[in-house]
Write a structure and sequence with these properties.
3-stranded mixed beta sheet, globular, alpha+beta, 186 residues, 3-stranded antiparallel beta sheet, 19% helix, 4 helices
Length: 186
Amino acid sequence: MRNRWLAGATLVVAAVALAACGNSSPSDPPASNAGANAHATDTGAHSVTIRTMKTSKGTVLVDAQGHTLYWFAKDTSTKSNCNGSCATYWPPVIGKVTAGVMLPHGFGTIKRADGQTQATYDGHPLYTYVGDTRAGEVTGNGLSLSGGLWWAVTPSGKTISAKKSHKSSTSSSSGGGGSGGGGGGW
């Protein structure tokens, strides 16, 4: 008799717990996406820390995990042109930026086609690259994929050579589409 009462009480508690868990508002992200790719599933409510790192190709901006940040030549200061399968290979940096270092250009955000908030640097939407599997890798620099060129983001806004530079003067004198002192001239 006592076991039946205990079983019934356990079912009531379980039902209440399930009802509370299933009561989410439409603005909550789906639970099935939690913990997937943070760049692709986050709603932008958090802050992304950006810092610099010296790599084999020069100093670039990286996320908190040390993954190189990239910009896409087809983007504009208000629109990302990397969506769908493109964003699978080049995950957008979702959220507002907290700079871990002083940088010469500013951070901002844009609204993506899917409604997420994407971080920008000097007016360029930011991405990581799935081909970079370790901190400090810059394998996406200079690639022509998804209909345009991809460049590692540098603090100065200048592109870095797609080939490995042997001297720092080589990469700083190349200018390869540098900003020329103006914003957004990458």
